[in-house]
Amino acid sequence: MAAVFSACSGSSSLFQGRNFFPFATKGSSSLHLKRPLTAKCVASLGTEISVPPAVDTFWQWLKEEGVISNKTPVKPGVVPEGLGLVALKDISRNEVVLQVPKRLWINPDAVAASEIGKVCSGLKPWLSVALFLIRERSKDDSLWKHYFGILPKETDSTIYWSEEELSELKGTQLLNTTLSVKEYVKNEFRRLEEEIILPNGKLFPSPITIDDFFWAFGILRSRAFSRLRNENLVVIPLADLINHSARVTTEEHAYEIKGPAGLFSWDYLFSLRSPLSLKAGDQVYIQYDLNKSNAELALDYGFIEPNGERNAYTLTLQIFESDPFFGDKLDIAESNGFGETAYFDIFYNRPLPPGLLPYLRLVALGGTDAFLLESIFRNSIWGHLELPVSRDNEELICRVLRKTCKTALAGYHTTIEEDQKLKEAKLDSRLAIAVGIREGEKQLLQQIDEIFEEKELELPQLEYYQERRLKDLGLCGESGDILGDLGKFF
């Protein structure tokens, strides 16, 4: 049985086979932002601390471009996150706090209109925008020169962690995801260097290093907007000064509108409204993404939420080619929106994701239950898999899932109790992320184990396919007894 069923949840194999696209997002999130500066001095709101000179220069540039005026209701300020936008007056919910004209957006259209547009035309959008960012940052006459002056060299995203810092993620799925992403970025850079950068030395006179490329990748990963009307990838200066807050429970705050973009011009504008009512001196917040897990927040932005419901663990299930029923099972899986490999994100204190149990039962199906794979059941089998098929089938998925959880738990170098003890002290920001991630994953593994332990205890009381079928035919009583002479055959 083990040869045809596997739940690959260990960190070593978690993301194998998953198509990785670095800017694909879950849900309908529009914003991917991150604090633009790391300020060593942290102020409580309302306390006046001068912003760095580069921010003043950036703000003056926005004034000259007609983006802000004396009526702009916000200003940059030093806040607990580093740098953010602070309300200059009381702001009502859904009131517009900033608008940025399209001519200042950094997107594939900006690349296409630039000197490197022709050589970048065949690239993935994010690769062309990454090259554009690197090239513009090196130019003294770039339109965005003062914007680049406030961008960080790196964030607390795990892609920038040292080997020692990453060692604190031992056993976690986030560690393997981070290493896979870093390898992906390195491979993309090598290909770009060979095919685009080196053959076009006149367009790229300044040397471009792997560190430059990681900088651009991090900027896009943390700041790029998606799903803004026809925009799939766009960086908008000024908008990324706004920080994230878990208190904001809606993502409906960003809009693309047509409006005045200067004294005598009209353009498409990025318009952002405050999702919260604010008092003068309050920081403006938005919600980056309601659907991201803490691991995704750590990878993209370099922070996590203390909210345990953000913790998630991904179970990876696979139908193996060695399975004697591989073709039938794959056909059934694909007919119901799955594939040879399926990924299920399990969140803390939430029900198991839809499709997990049917897929598990399908992968484990065999022996006397294999008749359900016949073509006569093809249109109805998924409905049968929504409920327990047989005791052997249900027992197998419980046993394998529980073993998987125990194996994964053994891969961490600390216990939940040790992590909780560490959190009582004031930790470095990156260590705090690592402790929070590994504690959350272990809690999820315990939760999954408990769910399937409870299912094991329920096995004798469950109703299986044969009993349900006999009841439908009127051949089985409500207590489960087989009626008449049929009982001797069961």
TrEMBL record:
Gene Ontology terms for molecular function: [ribulose-bisphosphate carboxylase]-lysine N-methyltransferase activity; protein-lysine N-methyltransferase activity
Protein's UniProt keywords contain Manganese: no
Location in the cell: Plastid, Chloroplast
Positions annotated to bind substrate: 223, 227, 240, 255, 288, 301
Lineage top rank: taxon: Eukaryota
A biological process from GO: methylation
Catalysis performed (reactions): [fructose-bisphosphate aldolase]-L-lysine + 3 S-adenosyl-L-methionine = [fructose-bisphosphate aldolase]-N(6),N(6),N(6)-trimethyl-L-lysine + 3 S-adenosyl-L-homocysteine + 3 H(+)
Family in the record: Belongs to the class V-like SAM-binding methyltransferase superfamily. Plant protein-lysine LSMT methyltransferase family.
Enzyme Commission number(s) of this protein: 2.1.1.259
Residue span(s) of domain SET: 65-289
Protein name: [fructose-bisphosphate aldolase]-lysine N-methyltransferase
Chain residues that bind S-adenosyl-L-methionine: 81-83, 223, 243-244
Cellular component GO terms, alphabetical: chloroplast
Entries under SUPFAM superfamilies matching the protein: RuBisCo LSMT C-terminal, substrate-binding domain, SET domain
Keyword Cell inner membrane belongs to the record: no
Pfam families per UniProt: Rubis-subs-bind
UniProt keyword annotations, A-Z: Chloroplast, Methyltransferase, Plastid, S-adenosyl-L-methionine, Transferase, Transit peptide
